Amino acid sequence: MSDTVAITLNINGEDHRVSVEARRTLADTIREDCGKTGTHIGCEHGVCGSCTVIIDGEPMRSCLMFAVQADGRKIRTVEGLAKGDELHPLQRAFIDNHGLQCGFCTPGFLMLATAVLEKEPDIADGDLLDALSSNLCRCTGYQNIIKAVRQAAIEMRGPRK
Amino acid sequence: MKPAAFVYHAPRTLEAALALLAEVAPQDGRILAGGQSLVPAMAFRLARPTHLVDINGVAGLDRLVLDGGVLSVGALVRHAAFHKADAKFGALGALLADVVHNIAHYPIRTRGTMCGSLAHADPASEWCLTAVTLGAEMVAHSAKGARRIAAADYFQGIMQTALEPDELLAEVRLPLLPEGAKHGFYEFNRRAGDFAIGMALVTYQVKGGKIAEARVGIGGIEGAPRRIAEAEAALNGQAPGKAAFEAAGQATAAVVDPIEDAQTPAAYRRDLAATVVTRALERAAI
Asked: CB–CB of B52 and A59 under 8 A?
């Protein structure tokens, strides 16, 4: 057993004080040590995007970061999207457009799309497709995911002033 | 799929990082920057470093500045910094913005670094091809001092570079392109964002209706990216167009020494070399 390091992960505004080995990935720590199992782990080597979370405003693969590297940083996971019983516009759009079937990839897609639309509310459609090509979905064939994100993008931009 | 145990170091200054690296390099201690190639390799246990020196907290390494006729890119500048580089850095910025969208995927680009790609030196790396084609200079630091390495001397084979184990690639220096210089990039792979099976980056100028100062680089075809002098010779002095572009492609295919893998025989990559060079030239002409 190698040494552990004491760190504080701020997930959705809440501090989690945990002690982890340096080799423990952020994805495993979020799930196993902090109990936030909404973040899914698919391939564990950065290809599938299921584990995508938002760190200091940027979407990142949590399987390609060690938890010690996220000490003190602001992490957002799928559990932080809804406000109480009110779903985030992206979550509603995924339901409305049948943007999921088995749901395994959904948290990763939601966090990817949230970060991209928050950073670039007026993102060009080509850039949006480029961003959404980051994650894998084995059920939907992607078209309904793209539809959902386009719909949510319009709603998140709000009425034009 | 869990990395083997290692000792983690998080220095705050370059001096501290270099001192640590000097100490742990003989035990396969490594630098950790973006980690988008090293961490998957560790997950597969293809890499089992005993120590990682995480430079993400090192002050000053995130500098992206114009320095005379050179764009200086620090070790912590992420790929994503070039998403909109076409609005800055002139013709070089436009080239970098074109190339960056072919590097893996968005969340990889927010974390991975240009210098990290250059240090890792995967044959399919877009930035390695860019560095070679443009004639970049690598600035390597160690506890003993700093040295500059020309791109042509830096890449030595599949994941092999001129860097010593105790050296940190602290900066890459990309020469600006002259205004009006044209560039074209073309990459072939089977899935968006996957590793390139073959790719080409070209730049040239048009003087008096003829191609001048052509640079033709290929990546993913051989063990390391390189410029193809024969293709450049086939272009310089010719009018830009189908005949010259195809001649450059054929000249490339004639001289490459392609790598092979389970899916892709060498003969395929030789054909592909001609195709990617010709298509990159066609894109440059648009």
From this structure: no
- Provide the percentage of residues in chain B whose pLDDT is more than 70: 100
**3-state secondary structure at position B52:** strand
CA distances from B278 to A39, A114, B135, B242, B251 (A): 44, 39, 21, 8, 10
Structural fold of domain B182-285? Enolase-like; domain 1 (3.30.390)
Nearest CA in chain A to B10: A69
Domain boundaries, chain B: 7-54, 64-175, 182-285
CB B246 within 8 A of CB B144: no
Structural domains present in chain A: 4-80 (3.10.20.30), 89-157 (1.10.150.120)
B64-175 folds as 3.30.465
A160 vs A156: CA distance, rounded Å: 11
Give the three-class secondary structure for A149: helix
CA A158 to each of CA A116, A124, B221, B263, B283: distance values in angstroms, whole numbers, following the listed order: 16, 17, 48, 48, 38
**Any alpha helices (H) in chain A, and if so which ranges?**
26-28, 89-96, 106-119, 125-132, 143-157
Give the pLDDT band (50/70/90) at residue A2: low
Q: B7-54 maps to which CATH number?
A: 3.30.43.10
pLDDT of residue A161 exceeding 60: no
Residues whose CB is less than 8 angstroms from the CB of residue B93 and which lie 6 or more positions away in sequence, other chains included? B82, B85, B86, B87
Element (H, E) at B245: helix B242-255
Nearest to A133 among B56, B105, B111 (CB): B105
Pairing relationship of beta strands B7-9 and B51-54 according to DSSP bridges: parallel
Contact residues, B window 216-275, toward A, CB-based 8 Å cutoff: none
* Cα–Cα distance for residue pair A102/B213, rounded to 1 Å: 55
Per-residue pLDDT, averaged over A8-20, amounts to: 98
How far the first Cα of chain B sits from its last, in Å, is: 45
Mean pLDDT for the stretch of residues B137-142: 98
> Is A44's CB within 8 Å of B105's CB?
no
Say whether pLDDT at B154 is over 90. Answer: yes
